[in-house]
Amino acid sequence: LASEEPPGKKQAAQSSKDELWHPSWVEATGERTIAQRLRAGPQDGEKMKLFTSWFCPFAQRAWIALEEKGVDYSYVEINPYEVDPQLPGGYTKKQLPIEVKKAMYPDFVQSSPRGLVPAVADPNGDKVWESLHVVQYVDERFDHPPFFLPKGDPLKRAHVRIWSDFVTERMQKNFYMLLMDQDPEKQATAKGAFFAECRTFAKAMSTDGPYFLGKEISMVDIALFPFWQRFLWVGGYYRGLVMPDDPEFRRLQSWWEACSERPAFKNTLV
Ligand SMILES: N[C@@H](CCC(=O)N[C@@H](CS)C(=O)NCC(=O)O)C(=O)O
């Protein structure tokens, strides 16, 4: 019986061909990228490895960074959670103990000491984890445009880091509270707080370009895109979240449209 198998033994669904794939899920542009990057080739040992989970917004940041830089990487799918065949796709949010992760994915845990995705491993031996640190590492390791932190501009580089952290610490955290809280009153409060953080962010955005800094993309765009995708898709589905119609949210909407048109971002939509 599937339910008697030890945790993690059964594979959670990753593509429409998998047993646990939920029939209501449609394959998106990102699934095509995954299929292409998963294909083991003779040169795979010489490629940078991306340890990732297709559903993880943090991991998607690292994924976008590699796609933007045009890196020939290989995609290594990790499921850091227990598998429950009763749930859609087999996905739970129950963390596997680090020893189990080590046994299942030894290379991954060598790159990510706590067994969190994302992490990258370069054939030269470099190993980096934590999404925003991976993005910055990829920026410097592949030292050509597009640059995720503006070169030679210490103040702008600092601001890019500050607003990238703001995405995680303020916008993402408040959205998560809105999603997790079951009490409608608390949900309304969380929604208000979430909108307020979004407006603060929008006011910090450049007025002369679609991206956060203006004409060029930066780490801030990469930091927010996976989460904005979930604010729209997950928030809309589970909380009927509709973004307000005001100058701040219109600015964010034009930002979202510009990012969605970039092939590197589009290639990661799942
Ligand atoms: N601060 C980390 C967060 C990464 C993270 O939470 N990843 C989740 C998946 S979305 C994970 O690996 N969870 C496994 C676990 O908690 O054991 C980052 O920015 O990379």
UniProtKB/TrEMBL annotation:
Entry GO CC: cytoplasm
Q: Which GO terms describe its molecular function?
A: glutathione dehydrogenase (ascorbate) activity; glutathione transferase activity
Asked whether the keyword Oxidoreductase is assigned, the reply is yes
Extract the Gene3D superfamilies matched here: 1.20.1050.10, Glutaredoxin
Give the domain of life.
Eukaryota
Can you give the residue ranges of the GST N-terminal domain?
Answer: 46-146
Ranges where the GST C-terminal domain occurs: 153-270
Please provide the record's keywords in A-Z order: Oxidoreductase
Annotated spans, Disordered? 1-22
Whether Membrane counts among this entry's keywords is no
Name of the featured protein: GSTU20 protein
Naturally occurring in which organism (per UniProt)? Symbiodinium necroappetens
